[in-house]
Amino acid sequence: MKKIFIAGLLLICFVAAKAQEIVQLPIPKLGKVSLRYMFRNGSICDPAGKEGLTSITTDMIVESGTSKMSSTDIRKMIYPWSAYMSSSTDKEVSIISFEVPSQYLDEFYSKVVRELLLHPSFTKSDFDRLLSNQQNYVEQVIRQSSDEELGKKYLESFIFRGTPYAQLNEGNVASVKTLTVEDAKKQYQSYFTNSNVLIGIAGDYPASFVSKVKADAGLLSVLKPNLPQISMPAQPKGISVEIVSKNGALGSAVSAGFPMNLTRSNDDFAAMMVANSWLGEHRKSYSRLYKKIREERSMNYGDYTYIEWYQNGGGNMLPPAGTPRTLNYFSIWLRPVQTAKGLKGQYPELKDIKIGHAHYAIRMAIREMENVVKNGLSQEDFDATRDFLKSYSKLYIETPSKKLGYLMDSRFYGRKDWITELDGLLSKLTLADVNNAMKKYWQVQNMDIVIVTDESEVNDLVESLRTGAVSPMSYSDNLKATLPKEILDEDEVVAKYPLEVREVKVVDIDDTFLK
Q1: Cβ proximity of 179 and 52 under 8 Å
Q2: What gap in Å lies between CA 498 and CA 297, rounded to an integer?
Q3: What pLDDT is recorded for position 55?
Q4: Which candidate, 167, 272, 359, 410, has a CA 20 to 30 Å from the CA of 47?
Q5: Which CATH superfamily is domain 2-217 in?
């Protein structure tokens, strides 16, 4: 692979000389085989006005059948084998995955995998079915099913506004309506080619199978993909807030962040993993924000931070492979806190409050981040967090298919085996390394914030944020009576913590992801 530096960012391009590179993970006697194709394209390759095209094209390869078998026939054939097929599209890669017991490998590969990759049927009926699902996602699911997921995706569009990263991988309301099966056929020929594919094989397979897979991949389109150049967006200037107003929202889901010029290609990433784990490791109760916001104050279900995109954080306990990216950002995810409407409905003693917990929670999270950047971790916290990560990161690859995914992501970042290399990097880290890295990559003065909340909360929350009003923490009388004095004293400090909010904008939920 060739390494190219553009705008201070490391880009890894799969060039023709390495077109059919295969990442192998042989595991004799495992009894099954995982096969994974990573195409270097992703949603950034969608033509203007056709956003969502790469996503539906990837799905069509797996879901539309072949020139010899319909999608229904394929599903019927592989069901008794317990075979598995999936597709996914992220910003810069599309992934097609297969898994099958070793005893069925030859027939599964020759009749299904090979034919789907080289001769997908792209039938109109399958396209219409998949298009309907994709349209439903961008028009309804992303807006209605999870305020947290909406907030995280909207934050991405906020941070990367004006760049190809800003769009949903699935497209937008206007663009999806324009997609045709002919568009998908053209995208398949142009961006699913033999010069931009990395192949991974894991499990119990014969050596001859590798040669067959490599040779067949060479039969993919010979066109050279025209991959767009991408560069880091401008940093926010001050704190900008966009509030998504939603009728019937049960709380205020908060997402905040800023672009960060750091990926796994840089050794500093290991140091920032330690800092991030201490501050807000995903789904871990030992982290600082979880302790301060959920554990001590019972405000919500969890409070986390991230130094790279975390796919399906609401469902995954461990970070999955398959979303390697050249551009990155830091983010805070505060699971929904209560609105004034919700609090007043439960506790008569709070009948006079105007806003719920969102403003306070944002202040608490940013204040805690500022404190750790300014003061650094203690030696004790550094040692404990580093040792935790050395063990915890090995769980990322607890299955052969997950390990294969991480090995392939490693290639994207110019590494051979990220998890193994991470162990070495963590072992060499010092407290000074982590504290210096935090000062280099983190700040709290410039940030984009998204709040998805009920329409009843919007006006008073806007006023509170714009004016920098004191935002006292609201407790029920019963809960407040159980809290120690140090928590209540800290609440008074947090309620007045200065946030330099430059702009607050309100967006109706029906106006999100329109184009």
Answers
A1: yes
A2: 21
A3: 98
A4: 410
A5: Metalloenzyme, LuxS/M16 peptidase-like (3.30.830.10)
